[in-house]
Amino acid sequence: MARIAGVNIPTNKRVVIALQYIHGIGQQKAKEIVEKVGIEDARRVNSLSDAEVLQIRETIDRDYLVEGDLRRETSMNIKRLMDLACYRGLRHRKGLPVRGQRTHTNARTRKGPAKPIAGKKK
C-alpha cells in the first residue's frame, strides 16, 4: 500500500483516482501530478515502482498544499474572519450559512436538526 502525504492510497485503483483520496487534490491536480511525473493514465497504483511513488510524493510536497497544512490554513482563515468580526466571521461564529443562502427554510446542514418550539400546540 502506497503512503503519500500521510494518507494510505488504495492500491487497486488508477493513479489519478487514488491521488484524489488526499485532502486538497482533486481531479485536475491529480491529472497535473501524473503528467509531471510522466505516468500513463491507465496505470494502477499496485503497478507503480517505488521510484515512481517517491517521485509523486516529492512532487506533491514541493508544489501543492495538502492535508494538515491545508486544513490548518483554512481554519486560520476562518479564525481570522471571526476575530475581525466582519459579516462572514459573525456567520461562522453563529453557525449559519456564510454565502448568502436563505435561512427561513432550509439551511439544515449548517443549523443542525430542527428544534421544536415549546408551547406551540393548539
Automatic annotation (TrEMBL):
InterPro entries: Rbsml_uS13_C (IPR027437), Ribosomal_uS13 (IPR001892), Ribosomal_uS13-like_H2TH (IPR010979), Ribosomal_uS13_bac-type (IPR019980), Ribosomal_uS13_CS (IPR018269). The keyword RNA-binding applies. One of its GO terms (biological process) is translation. Residues 95-122 are annotated as: Disordered. It comes from Asticcacaulis excentricus (strain ATCC 15261 / DSM 4724 / KCTC 12464 / NCIMB 9791 / VKM B-1370 / CB 48). This is Small ribosomal subunit protein uS13. Located at the top of the head of the 30S subunit, it contacts several helices of the 16S rRNA. In the 70S ribosome it contacts the 23S rRNA (bridge B1a) and protein L5 of the 50S subunit (bridge B1b), connecting the 2 subunits; these bridges are implicated in subunit movement. Contacts the tRNAs in the A and P-sites. Belongs to the universal ribosomal protein uS13 family. Keywords: Ribonucleoprotein, Ribosomal protein, RNA-binding, rRNA-binding, tRNA-binding. PROSITE patterns: RIBOSOMAL_S13_1, RIBOSOMAL_S13_2. NCBIfam families: uS13_bact (TIGR03631). The keyword Ribonucleoprotein applies. GO terms for molecular function: rRNA binding; structural constituent of ribosome; tRNA binding. HAMAP family: Ribosomal_uS13 (MF_01315). GO terms for cellular component: cytosol; small ribosomal subunit. Part of the 30S ribosomal subunit. Forms a loose heterodimer with protein S19. Forms two bridges to the 50S subunit in the 70S ribosome.
